[in-house]
Amino acid sequence: LFSYAIPHLLVFGMLREFTSREELKALLDKELEGDRREKPENNLLENTLQIALAGEFTTTKLEVYGYPERDPQYILFVESTNLQYPYIYVRKPLSGHNIELLNECARLLLTKYRSSIREHGKLLVVGDAEICEAFAQQLFVILGEKFETLEPCETGVFYMTAAQREAILSVDTDAPVGFTITPVDVDKDGETIHRLWKYGVNVDITKDRLRHLPSICARNEKGEVVGWAMSARFGQIANLYVLPEYRNNGLGKGIEVSLAKDYARRGLRVFKFVELSNKSVFDGSLRSPHWTLWMKEDEDNNDTKTPNLNYFRRFKQA
After folding, report:
1. CATH fold of 16-156+310-317
2. Which GO MF terms does the UniProt record name (predicted)?
C-alpha cells in the first residue's frame, strides 16, 4: 500500500491520513514486521492502533497521519475533541530523525489544527527533545502568536519486554491486608478519580476512559476507592495514584501489576512514562524486575547508554 524506503532526495508533499480500518490495519502490520514489534519505539504505535481498531473508545477523536505522503517516515497521532485541546504524539523514523522532514510535518500538522489550537489556546506535544522543539518553533510561524510552555515534563519510558510480559502473568497481585483490588465502578468512582487527576481535562472524558480502556482500583475495608490506575488514549498505563494516607504499604505496586497483567492478557504492549522528578517511582521502576528502561547509545561514546527521554510539552497561548 505504501513504501517505507528513505528517499534519496527529499520531496516535501502532503500529510497522508489513515482513515479506514483497512488502512490502519495495514499500517499496523507494516510497522510491526519482523523484529520491529519489540522495538520500544513502537510501544505507543501498536497500542494506539489496537485501541483504534477495537473501536470501543470514541469519546475523543483519533486521527493518524504519515509524512511524507508517499514514503511515510514520521507517524503522527492526534487526539482531539471540542472538549479538549489537541494532543499530538510523533513516532520518529526507526532510523533516526531527518530534521527537514520533521520541521515540514510539524508545519503541515499545525496548519491543519490551527483553528482548534486557537479555540482552546493550548496544545500538548509528546515526543523527544527534537520533536518538541520543532513544534515549538512552528507554532510561532503558523499562528503568529507567542506560546509558552506550561509544566514542562521530562520522562523516562519504562516498558516490558516480551519475556517480562509473559512473566507478569504469573506474578501474585494480592492486595495488602485490609484492601481489595477490583474493577473501577465508573458511576461511583469516576468523579473522585477525575478530581484528583492533575491532568484531567473533562470529567466525561475521564469516565469514558475508565469505562472503555483498561483500568483498575483498590478499595479499603469500607469499600471506598483509595487508589487506581487507568489508560491513556495513546495506550500507556497512566494516572497511577494512591491517596497519601494509604501509601508505602505495597498498594501502588499491586495496582500497577494488576493493570499490567490486564494489558498483557489483551495482547497489548505494557509501558508507562515516569517523570524524572518523581524520584521514588522512577528509582523503584529501575529496581523492579518487571520493567525495562528505554535506553539509547550516547552520541559521544557508543559504549555508554543513556535514558531515551520523552517530553510532555504543554503550550499555552500567552
Report:
1. Aminopeptidase (3.40.630)
2. acyltransferase activity, transferring groups other than amino-acyl groups
> 3-state DSSP call for residue 122?
strand
- Identify whether the C-beta of residue 278 lies closer than 8 Å to the C-beta of residue 121: no
Contacts with 20 (C-beta within 8 Å, 6 or more apart), sequence order: none
152: cell is 514542562
Q: If the chain, 318 residues long, is cut into consecutive pieces of 10 residues, what is the mean pLDDT of each piece?
A: 40 84 97 95 97 92 96 95 94 96 98 96 97 96 90 94 98 92 96 92 93 97 97 95 95 97 98 96 97 86 85 95
Residue 200 is predicted with a pLDDT of 86
Domain boundaries, the chain: 16-156+310-317, 162-268
pLDDT confidence of residue 145: 87
Distance CA 273, CA 293 (A): 10
Does the pTM surpass 0.90? The reply is: yes
- Fold of the domain built from segment(s) 162-268: Aminopeptidase (3.40.630)
Give the other-Cβ count within 10 Å of 75's Cβ: 25
Spatial contact of 125 and 163, defined as CB atoms under 8 Å apart: no
Cα separations in angstroms, 213 against 34, 54, 86, 174, 200: 28, 10, 20, 22, 15
The span from the CA of 221 to the CA of 185, in Å, is 16
The residue whose grid cell reads 490495519 is 25
The whole-number pLDDT of residue 63 equals: 96
Per DSSP, the three-state class of 77 is strand
Contact 313, 125 (CB under 8 A): yes
CB 85 within 8 A of CB 122: yes
